[in-house]
Amino acid sequence: MPTRPVPSSTGASRRVELDEDSGTVLLRTDQGAYVFRVDRAAGIVRHVHWGAALPLADAVALPPWSEHDNSFAGRWDGTEEYPVDGGARFGVPAFEVRFADGSSPVEATVQDVVLLDHDHVAVLLRDRTRPLAWQLHYRVPPDGDVVERWVEFAHTGTSQDGDVLLVRYASAHWPLPHRPDWRLSSVHGGWSAEGRLQRTALPVGETALGSRRGHTGHHANPWAALDAGDAGEEHGEVWVVALAASGSWRITAQRTAAGRTGVLVNEGHEGAELRLRPGGRHRTAASLALHTAHGFGGASRAFHRHLRGHVLPCPGEVRPVLYNSWEATGFDVSEENQIALARRAAAVGAELFVLDDGWFRGRDDDRSGLGDWTPHPTRFPRGLRPLADEVHRLGMAFGLWVEPEMVNADSDLYRARPEWVVHLPDRVATELRHQLVLDFSRPEVTEWAFGWLSQVVTENAVDFLKWDFNRSFTEAGVAAGGPDARRVHVEHARGLYRVLDRLRAEFPRLRIEACAGGGGRVDPGILGRTDQVWTSDNTDAVDRLRIQHGFSQLYPAHVMSAWVTDSPNPLTGRAVPLRFRFHSAMAGVLGIGGDLTRWTDAELAETAELVAVYQDIRPVVQHGEQFRLLAPGEGPLTAVQYLDGDRAVVLVWRPSTAFGPQEPPLRLRGLESAARYRDEDTGREWSGATLMGFGLPLPDLPAGDCASGMIRLRRVEGSGRDA
């Protein structure tokens, strides 16, 4: 995962401290501490503490976990930072290999502990007799509460030693403190139903989340939060772990009957093995984790800050209001109808026009054309440049939909290069959505992709790419076969990263949206190379409230693309007022995706007004801290608050009406108690203490279902600051 350069250690506060006599390492975060101890005699790295802040002297004195020793127990189970497969260990290993002779047990020895900078430490280990070494890396960024971990493996032998197969290669094992009980939070769902937040008791045993699909997946997302069952939105201890990788993945929470709990985080899944040849190396994806005492909301805001501060390529920018033509024209695109839509989009305030699918040769439907990335000769006989020039003349940036990782069997590319698809040579390749997956683990394929992408961007002055990915892997292997034939589940995403990194280096002003049939590839790894993600193909404004609630658990509004589309909704058939649709989409990066040629003059006028309002509140929504005031489904109302400096924005939705008592005021969060805040639309004023204690009186919502409101608050100049 790319991260921006870390400030020099000169004058920087030390984030990592080492007591050499005891081998104790203390990692400091803004709110807490992470402690482990290197036991050279036993050849292990023992976990000591993860939670509240403490001084190094206390960390040195803390005893590690001790378990009753008997011949049926693994004395180290649950206590190690990175458990290997070998010795009396019976838990899930973080690290499992197969040597050339077919054996697998590992005997670890500690070589050294190295402070690489004020915020980075590595523990160097190797097998006692076999040609294999690995390094455990820990890094604490200069601000925030996230700890980053990854592992680097090296085959240290010669050709006589043969290859080493990495069977399991976790980025990290995160041991948790002892608690009487544990609860697991994660998101689940499916295509157009992403982000369904679920909190369940963690049973004794192994609980696995993951994707075997070759991409992050709609059905789960590579993060998990754990608490002792007593945390709320703004109170209680919460631990969150995540993986910065965009291929197949697996997170395993393991709880033992003895009370030990830990979480393993790794790329790949069962059978997605990696071969190390002599001299070969492998660096895992990064795992990110944090602890907070401020509940699920505090954990979310801490992760949002980390992503903005250390992961996103251009975090300081505001994302433009876009218009996308897909739902208006489908595959029936032409220079004429796209220009007509562009003029209407510019008139209502759109800042970016995106031409979607159907613009390239052979693309008359979803059965053909993928792979042949030149303009459609009959739909765009003059090419795309005249459209791009008109879009720019209208004052908008020009964007283009692409799906570089896919190919139709009915395409010139597939006819010329059938071996480029993810396949097994003796199996029938399964088509999904009439397409196959190109193998981006192959350098010749990624070189081809970069070549045509850079040409298209250059020739058509493209400012923005909507990068789609519309099917999961099947028959995932490589033609060469062998025990690591399924490495494509990991290496395909790394090939994708190389293409994206090259594009951003070649075109620094190019902005990219990640899409995978909606939210099928959302993770900190892809966010290190893109500017926003398409949250879901479901644009129903009511459904989106739940999807966006789950999304916000880890990811900030700054990257959450949300559209206003036609009513009734094309997917659900639900009729929703324009105001509600806009308020739903204003909770993230606003886009418009309806057929503007069918919208009435009144709707277009209202759209222009609402776009202008969003442009006013956009810095607060995209860059401010987010507070989930009322969760969808827990009552008649859903509400979210954004706070940035002196301004706050509150969005309130009532999806359906029901008879009952009047809803109480909304208790806001994060304000200055002594300050006064003015409603920018009504002029009414309240103190921060009143807004957080008594609450904000609810706005007058329209009658009936799908009613919504928005409140803009500004701190009154000169009003008192909190002590």
Structure description:
This protein has 723 residues and is of the alpha+beta class. Residues 1-12 have low confidence and may be disordered. The relative contact order is 0.09. Helices cover 20% and strands 29% of the residues. The longest helix has 23 residues, at 601-623. Strands 6, 7, 8, 9, 12, 13, 15, 16, 20 and 21 form a ten-stranded antiparallel sheet that branches. It has an eight-stranded parallel barrel with strand order 22-23-24-27-28-29-30-31, surrounded by five helices. It contains 13 helices and 37 strands.
Largest sheet: 10 strands, antiparallel
What's the count of strands? 37
Cα gyration radius (Å): 27 Å
Helix percent reads 10-25%
Q: What gross morphology would you assign?
A: globular
What is the structural class? alpha+beta
Percentage beta strand: 25-35%
Give the overall average pLDDT: 94
Distance between the termini: 40 Å
Low-confidence segments: 1-12
Count the helices. How many?
Answer: 13
Produce the secondary structure layout.
Blueprint: E1 16-19, E2 24-28, E3 32-39, E4 44-52, H1 56-61, E5 95-98, E6 108-117, E7 120-127, E8 132-139, E9 146-155, E10 164-169, E11 172-176, E12 183-188, E13 196-201, E14 205-211, E15 223-227, E16 238-243, E17 249-255, E18 261-267, E19 274-276, E20 281-283, E21 287-292, H2 295-310, E22 322-324, H3 326-329, H4 335-347, E23 352-355, H5 385-393, E24 397-402, E25 406-407, H6 412-416, E26 436-437, H7 443-459, E27 464-467, H8 488-506, E28 511-514, H9 524-527, E29 532-534, H10 541-551, E30 560-564, H11 578-585, E31 589-592, H12 601-623, E32 625-630, E33 638-644, E34 647-654, E35 676-679, E36 685-687, H13 688-693, E37 707-715
Parallel strand pairs: 22-23, 22-31, 23-24, 24-27, 27-28, 28-29, 29-30, 30-31
Antiparallel strand pairs: 1-2, 2-3, 3-4, 5-10, 6-7, 7-8, 8-9, 9-20, 9-21, 10-19, 11-18, 12-13, 12-15, 14-17, 15-16, 16-21, 17-18, 25-26, 32-33, 33-34, 34-37, 35-36, 35-37
Helix pairs in contact: 4-5, 7-8, 10-11
